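Posting for a labmate who doesn't have an account.
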Amino acid sequence: MILPASRTSAEAHLYMDLRPCACGEARFDRQSAVVALEDGGLAARYSGSCPTCGRARRFTFRLPAEPTLPPSGGFHYGADEPSQLLDPGEWLWVADAYARSVPAGSATTDAGQQAQATLLRAVAALDEVLKFVPPGADTVPASAFTSGRGRHLRRRDPGRFRRGRLAAVRDAYAEMLPPVG
């Protein structure tokens, strides 16, 4: 069995959050362990019970050979390569959800640390969408959309997956953040 690769624990947790239990509950208390694979690699195993129906939940992800560190003062979901867990439509859905949850103007106030953290995650999610645009191309290719949610977003508004539009939205979110330092 080929395990899906998770570049960071943040990416793994987001993937699990987007894959609810059969009863519809998305969250569950997760116990984690690092396990050795037969090929010498490592994997992260997350397990727990659904708080609503009690069903066992279990996810296992291959870990990268070398962990990546987020940029100074920033947040990231992974290195330069596109995600193997989430497709570009799911990443855009995540960016939208994070951005919608931030009240206007709250990221620049002293009390806005949570808003800033949320906007950093929205920016990082848009960075993930941009990783799916091939060099020299202007848009995310249709073949990159593998989830129902992702294909639905692309069908509804394919222009949202153009490099220029993605970069403009990403930059607008980043400009709402106070300067680092």
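Reply:
Got it, the structure tokens are right above this. The mean pLDDT is 92.
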